[in-house]
Description:
The chain is mainly beta.
Amino acid sequence: MPPNLTGLYQMVSQDNMDEYLAALDINFALRKIVCLLHPDKEILQEGDHMIIRTLTTFRNFLMDFTLGQEFTEDLGPVDGRVCQTTVSWEGDKLICVQRGEKENRGWTHWLEGELLHLEMRVQDVVCKQVFKKVK
């Protein structure tokens, strides 16, 4: 049985964000702003339905999906692209595959105690974030 990720998490560390954003063709000025942000993650998990909110002082991002069902994801707030996205459990890891203009795009979430780990991938670049559960 996969873990329940429901909760509010605050970012405690981030690695390789600028390189990740550059691989997404984000302009220099916006990359610098994003790298200064310390987002919170709010996750609501009810059965196969999940809502993941990424909350910042600059811009918020919402994912609302059903596990295992492909959907069209508008990544306009991130990089102006649209992709076909599928999120599913592989063991105790929540895996997202985003098919579109950029190869090998997606992310993985998993828990280690009270820490929520996130690896975001695009092409051969990986950005890592760690969040601590606060609620």
